[in-house]
Amino acid sequence: MEEAEQLKKEIEAKLLLGIKVQPDQNKSRGPEMTWDEFREEYSQLHLKSVRDSSAKDAESRLDIATKIIKPKTLGEMAKPASLQRLQAGLLAGEHSRRGMPRSPHTVRGYMKSIVSALNWAYHQDWLTDQPKRPRIKVSKKTAMKGRPITETEFKKMLKCTAAEVGDEAADSWKFILRGLWESALRIDELMHVSWDMHGTIRPKWIKGRLPVLEIPAAMQKNDTDEDIPLLPAFEKLLIQIPKEDRTGWIFDPLSLQLKLGRKVRHQRPDAEWVGKVISRIGKRAKIEVAPADSRTGTEIKFASAHDLRRSCGERLRNAGVPPLVICRVMRHSSWETTRRHYAPGDVQKDAAVLRGLLR
Asked: What is the pLDDT of residues 276-312, one digit of tens each?
């Protein structure tokens, strides 16, 4: 039914544009369908139902896989030999931005996307055998692309903010930084926090109950409406705003055009642009969160918006907040995800806790 409804919409759209609709009776729906046909079907029937950022990443990775393998059919791409060759090409750095080898962690993510697309085809009965991802050995040292930053480093970012965005806009950008530092939200989520706008993330104060953040399904990776505890420090930040001003977006950074004395041409910036500016502030503050890698050509990574989210998770762990509560705040399905990606902890502090308990 879903495929039929989608096909109906496509035909209606083509008719409105004056495009002649040709019968599609001879179109193959199996291993022999062309790779281009599969890409179109996958994009129209599946990727349009996922988040825009996820769809964009999937399309990009399929583009690279297409350049490396150059498959003519769906079945050709799904062959174990093709997947093995794809993984080898990705590791070697074929069609990478810097022309350098990719890390095993990166390649595993790419292969997961490609095999996920092929598995979708398998569940449509377009492939007879379910594709499997080739094994790849990855380091278990860390899965983080950055690290939690310290309070001293965060203060350095605040201090450097005006130099990056200008004195007039500085306070609004510092407010963004503090919001990320105290909330454990992702940058896209923080930019969708409002006081009173339907379909956005909103703080809720209900008499006789503790405050929470109301997060709609559209803002969740798991597509589920959820309330999470409103962290006390984040609440303290929010209630600094006078009651008469509590309407519309809560985080609304001023334009950088003000720094240059230019007329502001655009309205509220999107999360992607805000994230780039925050990364520039981290670079100006010289806060390195990951070293350069000469093997892959990766440059030094400076503090970003996501590192501020990591910092919040780390502080919750250091404060002794139970793991399951941290998972709820970070909205992870398991403590292992939180531990590996956001709150690895301090072995010295863990050792001190053990000694204190076992003494």
From this structure: 999 999 999 999 998 987 776 778 999 999 999 999 9
Which CATH number, 1.10.150, 2.30.30, 3.20.20, 2.40.30, labels domain 28-139? 1.10.150
Structure tokens at 339: 């531990």
Phi-psi group of 186: left, alpha or beta (phi > 0 → left; psi -120 to 50 → alpha; rest → beta): beta
Placement of tokens 């003519």 in the chain: 72
**Helix, strand, coil content of the chain in percent (nearest 5):** 55, 5, 40
| Residue % of the chain over a pLDDT of 70 | 81
Superfamily (CATH H level) for 151-352: Intergrase catalytic core (1.10.443.10)
Helix (H) or strand (E) holding 278, with range, is helix 271-284
Are 111 and 140 in contact by the 8 Å Cβ rule? The answer is no
Distance in angstroms (rounded) separating the CA atoms of residues 30 and 27 = 10
pTM assigned to the model: 0.69
Highest mean pLDDT among 27-31, 51-55, 227-231: 227-231
Secondary structure (3-state) at 193: strand
Beta-sheet strand order (sheet of 202-204)? 202-204, 212-215, 226-229
- Chain centroid, CA 340 distance in Å: 16
CA angle 294, 295, 300 (to 5 degrees): 40
Element (H, E) at 213: strand 212-215
**Is residue 63 classed as helix, strand or coil in its secondary structure?**
helix
Report yes or no: 48 and 55 within 8 Å, Cβ to Cβ.
Answer: yes
**Structural domain boundaries in the chain:** 28-139, 151-352
